[in-house]
Amino acid sequence: MGIAKRHMEHMEDQINVATEIAIEAGVLERCEYCEATVFQGEEDVEEAYKLGSHRFKNGDFGGLFESQLELTDAIKESVESGDHAADMCYHCHEKMYGDD
Ligand SMILES: [Zn+2]
Description:
The chain is 57% helix and 6% strand. It has 4 helices and 2 strands, in the order H-E-E-H-H-H. A two-stranded antiparallel sheet has the order 1-2. The protein starts with a helix and ends with a helix. The mean pLDDT is 94. The structure holds zinc ion.
């Protein structure tokens, strides 16, 4: 495996973990129906930073993040990602409320 690919996978792992933290903090929400869509939650991104910082100090990430800044960056990237920009799961919303 090339270094570039490994680097990309590492970034992906970081974003995945960051996304879980943001969901746990209520900054992002995972659709309870399809469990695939992640969208914007109620909480401010600061809440995810706080939770992440707490976890980082606990050593919960086993070296996935070299510094707390790296973790904060990953959280920011996940929360601001276009993939998570919706305020609901349109896929399930349409299935439930769409008139077809
Ligand atoms: Zn859904």
